[in-house]
Amino acid sequence: MTTRTAGIRGSDEVGGLILFRIRGVPVMLAPSWWIGSLVVTMLYAPLVGRFLPGTGGLASIGLAALFALLLGASVLAHELGHCVVAMRLNIPVRRLRLFLLGGLSEIGRTPRRPSHEGWVAAAGPAVSLALGVLFAAAIPLTPTGAVRLVVVECAIANAAVAIFNLLPGLPLDGGRMLRAGVWAVTGKRRLGTRAAVVGGGAVAVGLVIWALSGLITGTPDQWLWLRLGVCVLTAWFVAVGASGELAAEQRRTWPDGLTLAG
Fold it and tell me: Whole-number mean pLDDT of the chain?
């Protein structure tokens, strides 16, 4: 979840397709989401034949496309969790947008209490975990074959989304929860932001190290370069998001020691 304060000038300028509205908040699909879903479909289709021997080319593509759609729906549910809790706490939400790397819930103002920040941040991973458990519980109830494969993949995907977002670094949900915790203990949101920005840097470095580990060890892996590209792109997103959060925090707070009289 990312907090933004810039106004929305219209769906044409942001290049998004409005899917629906929830209490007046537009839920939008960015053009890059289609690119991401196409990539997921192309990469996953060859694997369907391994999991389901004898599956034809068109069937493999269809199952891969279905998985891409369900993955998008899972991300949407994750972001809706953020939005619903924010609105229940009377925090305005400008829009929800799905894009290439996931989703963004754009909050209209900074939460005024650390508890509010923590609850809003925790809502998304909670929804993902609940969906992961629900799909996992449904696995024994589904017939073997294509249906079970899709259910297993949805369980894994939702669990992965929850775990990744709980990493303690901005702009991830875990970073926001860390900021809320430090803020609650110290009474200083700025200190919490700095701690979570450091966490974001650690997450970005960890992603790059994990991606490079295959190259360093020389372990044969047909997905090595794909993993490297995805991790580097995600690390860049985390690093840029963390630096943006720090800059936003510096803009919204007064310098230490400055008084209104001064």
Answer: 84
